Amino acid sequence: MNGLVLLAGCGLGDGSCIEEVILTYLALEQHHWHYQPVALSRWVPSIDHCSEASGPLRNVLVESARMGRGRILSLESIDPKDFDCLLILGGMGLRANYADQPAVHTLLHAFLDAGKPIATMCAGLDFLRLILGPELLQDEQASVSPTSFCHDSLRNLYYTPAFRCPADLPQVQQGIASMIAAIGADRKKDDK
Description:
Blueprint: E1 2-6, H1 18-30, E2 34-39, E3 43-47, E4 54-59, H2 60-64, E5 73-74, E6 85-88, H3 93-98, H4 102-114, E7 118-121, H5 124-132, H6 138-141, E8 150-152, E9 157-160, H7 169-191
Parallel strand pairs: 1-2, 1-6, 2-5, 6-7, 7-9
Antiparallel strand pairs: 3-4, 8-9
């Protein structure tokens, strides 16, 4: 499997949730996926994570590179056809930095139109609902725990709550890892 990991900056308040990024990388590597972190290059206001006050402008791609392990690419430089799955991690930066960005909408619809899986967690679901409609995974997500996930088979969307529910790192890791494992297993079935 080859996953595309969409990052929105570095830090829960104005980017991607660092813990969710690291736990996702861990799960992907444990399940032997190849993955590519990407972000959109644009300047946005930052948030001081101590005071929650507005901070200086920062570039989303540059901030995301802090978690990209030197492998980050600009969203504009990739072709969605090269990837089997899109992973949209949580963090408030998704909505603030990407809600009005056509390149991100185009990326999302490329995966949807191709029937390729899209996996998300925490605030990533709010971001998807903003674009695809508020009813998205409404019933499914109501009963899912941090250690599990739910799946909308019609749109091939996966969701685990991560830190949306009270949880510790091992619980969130279990939910992310089980979601990644299920996507890989479903993909193998489709390839047969």
